[in-house]
Amino acid sequence: MRVDIITIFPDYFGTPAKGAGPLGVSLIGKAAARGELDFRLHDLRKWATDVHHTVDDTPFGGGPGMVMKPDVWGAALDDVLTGTGAVAAASAASAACAPLARLIVPTPSGTPFTQGHAAAYAAERRLVFACGRYEGIDSRVVADARSAMAVDEVSIGDYVLAGGEAAVCVILEAVCRLLPGVWGNEQSAADDSFGGGTGEEGDPMRGLLEGPVYTRPRSWRGREVPPVLLSGDHKAIARWRRDEALRRTAAVRPDLVSQMISGTAGGAAILDARDRTVLAEAGFPVDGESMAH
Ligand SMILES: C[S@@+](CC[C@H](N)C(=O)[O-])C[C@H]1O[C@@H](n2cnc3c(N)ncnc32)[C@H](O)[C@@H]1O
Questions:
Q1: Residue partners of 141: CB distance under 8 A and separation at least 6
Q2: What's the CA-to-centroid distance between 167 and ligand 1, angstroms?
C-alpha cells in the first residue's frame, strides 16, 4: 500500500523506511523497510508561492485563528495525486486518480473513525492524508476533491488536537495492522475489541470490547488467573471470553450494547440464551426482539 501524507510538519513522522518515527517502529516499520508499506511525506509549504511559504490566512467572517489556504492545498493535492509535478485544475487531476486513491482528512468535525473504516482503508491500494493545523483547511478543498474522488473526513475522538498528524498515526496504526503480512498473527486481530479484524456481520465479537487477558505466572501478588483459562476446555474458554466481553462492554460502553441489540451491529438475533442471561445480570434485559434500556 502507498500512503501519502501532506503536512506542514513532515518531521513529525520521522523516516519510516529507516526505522525512525512513529511509522518506522514495530511491525509497521518492518513492513515499511521491506517496501510493503510505501510512506511518502510531503511538506505542504513546498506548494506555497510567496517568499514566506505562507499556508494560512485570516478567516472570512472574522473570528479567532487562521484557516489553511485552498490554493496551497489544491496545488499540493493535484501534484501528489498526479505525481507529475504539474499543478493542474483540481478536479481534472483528481479525476485522473480517483480510482486509485482515497483522500482522508482528519478533523474533529468528521465522522467518528471506527474499526469498520480501518478495514475499508486496509483494502485500498493508496491512501492520501491531509493534515490540518490552525482552525483547519478551507472547506472548498474537501468539496472540490469530493467531486472527483473518495474523500473521508474522520474524527478520532471527541476532543480537539492541535493538528492532524497524531490522528494520521492513529488511523494508520489501525489500518496497517490489518494488512496481510504486516501483523504476525491475523487471528489476534480478529479476537480484538470491535471484532478487530473485519467487524463484519456474523463476527461473534462484533460491537463488543475484548475482555481481560492473562499470561504467566498463574499467581501474581496473590492474584490468580481465572481457573477456566487453565482448563484446556476450549469451548468453556470461548464461552467465558464472550461472557467477559459482554460484561465489560455493558459496564463501560452501554452505548455499544444498545447498538448491538437494536441491530446496528447485528441485532438481538446474534445473542444466544447465555448472552441474554449475562446481559440481564449486567442490567441489560434483552426481551426477545428488543431490549428495554
Ligand atoms: C485545532 S484543530 C481545528 C479544530 C476546528 N477549528 C474545529 O473546531 O473543528 C486543527 C487540526 O487538528 C486535527 N484534529 C484536531 N482534532 C482532531 C480529531 N479529534 N480528530 C481528527 N483530527 C483532529 C485536524 O486536522 C484539524 O484540522
A1: 68, 70, 73, 74, 77, 130
A2: 9
* CATH numeric code, 201-291: 1.10.1270.20
As its CATH architecture, domain 2-184 has 3-Layer(aba) Sandwich (3.40)
Cα 147 vs. chain centroid, distance in angstroms?
23
Half-sphere exposure for 59 (CA within 13 Å, toward CB):
13
Decide: 167 in ligand 1 pocket, CB within 6 A.
yes
Cell numbers found for residue 259: 447498538
Q: Report the catalytic residues.
A: 108, 135, 177, 192
Index of the ligand 1 atom closest to the CA of residue 105: 25
What is the CA(171)–ligand 1 centre distance, in A?
14
User: What is the identity of the amino acid at 116?
Assistant: G
Q: What is the pLDDT of residues 39-74, one digit of tens each?
A: 999 999 999 999 999 999 999 999 999 999 999 999
Specify the pTM: 0.90
Distance 42 CA to ligand 1 centre (A): 19
Residue 225 gets which letter from DSSP?
A: P
CB atoms within 10 A of CB 275: 20
Rounded to 5 degrees, what are φ and ψ at 170?
-60, -50
Tens digit of each residue's pLDDT (9 = 90 or more) over 126-159? 999 999 999 999 999 999 999 989 999 999 999 9
Amino acid found at 186:
E
Pairing between strand 2-7 and 126-130? Answer: parallel
